[in-house]
Structure formats: structure tokens, C-alpha cells
Amino acid sequence: MNIHTRKLESDISESEVNQAISVLHKWMEQGGGLDRLNETSVPFEVAKFLPDYPELTDTYPNDFKIDSEYKSSLPDLQNGPSSLIKGSNQEIQHVGISNFKLPIRYELRGSGERTLETSVTGSVSLGADKKGINMSRIMRSFYKHSEEQFSFSVIESALNDYKKDLESFDARIAMKFSFPMKVNSLRSNLAGYQYYDISLELIDQNGVRTKVIHIDYVYSSTCPCSLELSEHARKTRNQLATPHSQRSVARISAVLIGAERLWFEDLIEACRDAVPTETQVMVKREDEQAFAELNAANPIFVEDAARLFCKALKSDNRIGDFQIIASHQESLHSHDAISILTEGPTFENVSIDPHQFTTLLHRG
After folding, report:
1. Which residues 6+ apart lie within 8 Å of 46 measured at CB?
2. What is the pLDDT, as a whole number, of residue 39?
3. Can you give the residue ranges of every domain in the chain?
């Protein structure tokens, strides 16, 4: 089917151009202007036809230098008046940045230090009558302190800085990193590095500061029921059967109390003592056999895992409130088995984040 339309590429007459410019002039007389171009459908390409539109260059000015007067003239919408707020004049609990990366130094138990790539999440509360915050201040605060301090000291100093700079009443910073720790194989005398996802969090709320350490501990869980059923098949029918086991993850969050330091290595070893079937780094045949024996000696349901970790945390006087989230990523079922155990009010929550357990998938 043929559709006849106007010729789109026909020549535009001078009278049509003048008519278009006349329309733009009328728009200006009715209150339109350069400051309203973003709010209208008039493109910047057309704006040059408006009266007094400046001549612009598209060449980057490599030799341009700013002075204090020019700097002070720059617009700052985020720190503008409350009249610029869009939506409700409502307090926002957290405003900030996520996944800002830089190297941070961490002290090791005993002696020494290790510099690790660290992902920073920092936020502050925003008052109902404030338009926004200058987020670059969070990053500048971290760079200022990261080369001279360690771990929580960096967070403390950065939080002091940007809470003061941003005139905020609450603030929160978390630093996430992968901590390497050398572990020995079970029987072959080999050794390799196990990496632990750790996050340090400092919460400043209502003038009270709370330090929290989070760690993901990855282990193998052999189902006690499956183990017993496999043994039953062997004993009663001479039938070879194997119990199911699976890679499992426990995310442990602990509030630090008291003056004595809880080292990363201390918390890792507490997890190993509670559930010794940690996944292995270096494995030869003798280690694989040993791991099968270790799993058979420590079969656990997901409920058992939560309570075993709980016992270990409660026995450490450096730990106050805590939370244990365990996920056994089943090899038998098409779903996972999960448990959540909390101690104290810090981690009480009636709602479950619908994506919480998907973040526990350990991809190696």
C-alpha cells in the first residue's frame, strides 16, 4: 500500500524561518528564557536563534584555571534552599554513596598489616528541610585518613569529619573487603589462602556509636537424616548409599563491646570451632577422604548450625548483640534451607529482605 505524505526534505523558505523566529520571540516575551530551556521541549540547537544567546565553543579549554571568585560563582543545587525540594519535605534516614573503592590498611593479629581493596558505603541522615548533601565529602574524608590509620580508626575519623561537614545528626559507614588467611589442608601438609568476606560497620545514631563486624563463613553441611537413611540402606540391604551434603554459608553480624579487640582471625577461628567443616583450599586424595570423615563426624541441620554459632558467640565477652543467618544450599531439594537467630535488640526485624538469601550464594 502506498501512502502519500508531504515531502519532508523540501526547501524551507525564508518566510518560514522568520515565522519560527517570531514564535520564539513571543515565547520570550511571555516569560521564556535560557533558564527555562531544560523545562521545555525547545532544544539547545534552536536556542541559538534567541536574542542575546552567547557564542559557545566546543573546544576543551586545557589552559583554563579557576580562581576563588569563579569557584564561588559555581551553582550548588544540592545545598540549595528548601524551596528546591521535590516531593515531600520529609527526613531521609540514609543518603550517601555505595561501593566507593580505595586501599585500606588492616592490622593482623600478632604483628604486621595488610593493605586490601575496600568497598565503602557511607550515608548520613538528611533533615526534612535540606535539599541534599555533597557526597564527594564522604570520599574526601576517607582519602584524608586512609593512609595513616587502620580499620575502625579510619571509619571513626571519616565519620567525625563528614558528620561535622554535612551537619547531620545520624551517620553510618561500612567498609567491605576480602580478608585472606592461610589455612592448612587436613592431611597432606599443604597450605593455601582462604578468603573471607568481612565488613566493618560504624553506626552513629542519636549520639550513640555502635561497632559491628560482619563475616561470611562458608562450610559444608551433611544432612543428619540423609546420613542415617544411607546407613540404614547399607545395614539392612547391603545397598550403597551416600548422604547429601552441600556448600553452606553463615553470615554472622556481631556488635563489638568492651576495650579488648576482636581480631578477624579470632572470629574466623570461633566459626571453625563451632562448625569445623569449612570448605577446603588445597586438597589431595587423603584430604578428600579426611573431609568426608569430618562431615560424617559433624552432620548438621541448618537449625543446628545457627545454634552452634550462637554458642560460640555467646561465650566471647567481646561480643554483645549478634545475628546469625544460615543458608544450606541444598543438593537434595530445589530450594534452600535457611535459619535466622538474633540475640539482643540491634538486629531485631519483623520484615525479611526478599533478596537477603540470594546474597548468600557463594560463587568462589
Report:
1. 24
2. 46
3. 90-169, 178-364
Give the rounded distance of the alpha carbon of 53 from its chain centre: 46
pLDDT(183) > 60: yes
| Cβ neighbours, 10 Å, residue 84 | 11
Confidence of residue 50 (pLDDT cuts 50, 70, 90): low
Mean pLDDT of 332-360: 89
**DSSP sequence for 127-168:** -TT-----THHHHHHHHHHHTT-BHHHHHHHHHHHHHHHTT-
Q: Taking the chain, what is the end-to-end CA distance rounded to the nearest angstrom?
A: 59
How far is it, in rounded angstroms, from Cα 247 to Cα 263?
Answer: 26
The CATH number of the structural domain formed by 178-364 is 3.10.270.10
Query: What count of other Cβ atoms lies within 10 Å of the Cβ of residue 110?
Result: 7
Q: Supply the pTM of this predicted model.
A: 0.80
Helix 302-314, helix 264-274: angle, nearest 10: 130
Res 145: pLDDT: 83
Question: Which distant-in-sequence residues (6+ apart) come within 8 Å of 185 by Cβ?
Answer: 191, 192, 280, 281, 282, 283, 284, 287
SS3 10: coil
Residue 338, all three cell numbers? 535457611
The secondary structure of residue 59, as a DSSP letter, is S
